[in-house]
Request: fold
Amino acid sequence: MSDLLEITGLTKQFPGVLANDDISLSVKAGEVVALLGENGAGKSTLVKAVFGLIKPDKGEIKISGNVMAYGDTAGVIAAGVGMVHQHFQLVPVMSVTENIILGDEPRKAFFIDRKSAREQVLALSERYGLEVDPDAIVEDLPVGMQQRVEILKALRKDVKLLILDEPTAVLTPLEIDELLGVIRNLANSGVGIVLITHKLHEVMEVADRVLVLRGGKAIGFTSPKESDEAGLAQMMVGRSVILRVDKTPAKPGKPALEIRGLQVLDDRKLLSVKGVDLIVHHGEILGVAGVEGNGQREMVEAICGMRHRTAGQVLVDGELTKDMHPHSVHAAGISHIPEDREKHGLVASYTIADNLVLNQFDREPFAKGWVRNISQVTSNADQVVEEFDIRTPSAQNLASSLSGGNKQKVVVARELSEDLKVLVAAQPTRGVDVGSIEFIHNQLIAARDRGAAVLLVSAELDEILSLSDRVAVMSGGKIVAIVDSKNADRNYIGRLMAGMKS
Amino acid sequence: MTFLTKRNSFILLIALATGYFFSKDGSITTSVVSTATAFALPLALAAMVGIMCERTGIVNIGIEGTLLTSAFAAFFVSSLTSNILLGLAASVAVGTLFGLLLAVMSVSWKMDQIIAGTIINILATGLTSFLYVQGRTIPSTFPEYDIPKLMDIPFFGPVLFMHGPLFYFGIFVILSLYVALFKTTWGLRSRAVGEHPSSADTAGVSVIRLRYINVAIAGAIGGLAGAFLSLELVGSFERGFTAGKGFTALALMIFGRWNPLGALAAAMFFGLTQAYANQLMIDQVVQIPTQFITILPYILTIIVLAISAGKVRAPAAEGQPYEKENA
Reply:
């Protein structure tokens, strides 16, 4: 019997990146193969090629022994392949039923047979134990529920091979357990499964075999039996992973950033920052640890003048800063690495060079009066690209052409370019590859050593612990404790983050 | 006051105006509303062109050009061949061709769709002005065909069932489009392509092919609208003949929330205001310069749009060329 899926020598070159380099993989019925790798390792590219959504430059894809052509998504589906996409492929304004039947609708003459469509969805939902409301509109559903719809959609045809592209990224731990159970059951009933993830414990839990990808190359096969989490991590990153950063002890100076009694509303107009007092000194990194959604984002935006402060004050070197006025806050000496670099960090349609001077394009030396000094902008860009190792053919390319990690380097480079007093860094290494993470970490410490006060907000506790001099734990909109990072205890901080007293 | 919000107030407005005229003279009301219906149909059809395109994610601001060129083709082919059926055929063919042109530019070449539409409009003005010959006539317009029995219904009979064949066919097209869009597999797929094309693509629906087909059919409907104008409603053609109807149609499409029936109602509203404005001028009820009365329909449309605009939601993928590899 031939394998369900057989990929041989698949190669795909994107502009500037070799996304897949001669990758081969086969999947048998009833087996769970995990594709493990960092962001940008080429996992999604590989499965998109299987699904006919990306045209490979070289290589062959066989499904149940038949060679598939590029672009024949309908043929791939007909051959029994279902895919749960990383970015949900659901039409937000349509109902659950409409989304599930799209592409192969039950019909009476020209018309959609809504009644039998609805019944199909209910039957499907029952068969796999994934409960959904067939009449709900997708955009009204929480993400976990949308995920179910996406899975049901993939399972609708009698699938022989199910591909799941980072299905757990948006789920709660309980939903993840549920999903892993579903995956196991499907495999036991003979479905071949390709699971893409970068979460090691999921791999350990469900995978029969693991293919590790790094930088577009297949590093090798292993299995949970032969390896453990540390071993997988090492294969994934290419060296043993210790997120410890070399740094000298901090030499804190006088207070640089002072936050007094800050209260902020969130988007739903509920109080999410409930009176925060913090002081960050020159020459220290204060890390804010906390489970996401405990007011960190709102706090950061309020400090930087992007969100209205309902109460409280923010001072830089003893001077009050204005509310809701990012420009004057910035002029007062606060630099900001925003959480959402696509939305707040960069202008995607501007060149890298222009993005690098967004915070000072209207000042000397980049402008004289109303006239910009383009040659200065260019030479500055060339220098920064070199110094920060931003991977681009030219600084005149658009910012949108960069990969996530390099975009983040542009933001970091820009925000660190001035003699800053205060740096507010929100999730500075989110979605960034390991090499860039290290680089950004070192830059933050270098800024500290030059005397800047750094307020670091991150969802990664390891990052907080390895970078910070002091750690503030935020929970329920309040700072519940501030500890010295030298004698910080992970478990203790973890309990505080979870809202437990002590 | 919840009753007086949204479009209820406009329905009330129309009812009041109709009532006012009806109380004066019933036969005038009937003739005014009948005229309004004839005014409204080409606008409604033009709005269908917009709906067909935008529901699949293509912005079409070239409707005006499509109408103009197909009305031109309808008139001159009828005139040259002395056969209005050939004129109709030419008009639909030209409309389809313009649809395909838009599809090539916006789907295949991934051009900015506003520019693509503008090109069509400029092309239309140029072609029709250049090829225009003065003093030609057509053998006849499409004759009025009164539907027996139905025409005897008071008020509705004369308003709806005493028109020419293209009128009836146009109404049929609008109703079919409504059914097709919301009840058939084609409609579901088209809307999916206009809202979230990668969902359709991953479900095995060809985004490119569907966009081509729909934009071409939309062009054909535009051709029908053009033929209705020059061969049935007016019976002549001049330079700039369509006078912005294609742009008005875009507004009606939005007011009708990209729903064929909604757009038809919006067109009817606009047609009525226009017919009432005409009647006001004839009656000389108010002594103000006629120019002010002629702009009344447009002002009302602007007000109506301004009030309702915040609540409408365009197809999400509108105006974005589909890039498969960014899916």
